[in-house]
Amino acid sequence: MDIDKKKVYIYRNINNIKYHNEIINYIKNNDIKYTENTNGFFVNISLIDEHINNIYNILQYIIFNNNENNEMDYKKQELIEDNKIIKKIIQKLKYNIELTEFTKEDQDKIILSKNINLIIKDNFI
């Protein structure tokens, strides 16, 4: 494919990828002139013929591996949601154990230990 077709390919496909870090790093590491503002990161591809092949290859690699990235994003989000659920369960387990859930013997021990703690605190204050 000639340089002009690769430029058109880059122009038409650059917005089809989610993460542009690889391309941005390439541009910065090779001292290619760019503009960055609140609207995005811009390069005049008509002035960088010597870098078009590399940017084209990076873009193609990202596009062809996009399914893996999407799957990884999905798995990451799934793990985050699972972690939130686990944290909620742990919170409930930590703080919401009713005294009635223990045997009578254990209830007596808990009550006794609370009384001992109160006595110890009173003596040290």
Radius of gyration: 30 Å
The total of helices stands at 5
Separation of the first and last Cα atoms:
83 Å
The biggest sheet, with number of strands, parallel, antiparallel or mixed sense and barrel status, is:
2 strands, antiparallel
Q: Beta-strand percentage?
A: under 5%
Structural class: mainly alpha
What does this structure look like?
There is one protein chain. This protein has 125 residues and is mainly alpha-helical. Helix content is 70%, strand content 5%. The protein has a two-stranded antiparallel sheet. The relative contact order is 0.09.
What is the secondary structure topology, with strand pairs?
Blueprint: H1 3-13, H2 21-29, E1 35-37, E2 40-42, H3 49-64, H4 66-95, H5 104-124
Antiparallel strand pairs: 1-2
Helix pairs in contact: 1-3
Question: Which characteristics define this entry?
Answer:
125 residues; mainly alpha; two-stranded antiparallel ribbon; 5 helices; 70% helix; 5% strand
Care to give the gist of this entry?
This protein is mainly α. The chain is 70% helix and 5% strand. It folds into two domains: 3-64; 68-124, no CATH class.
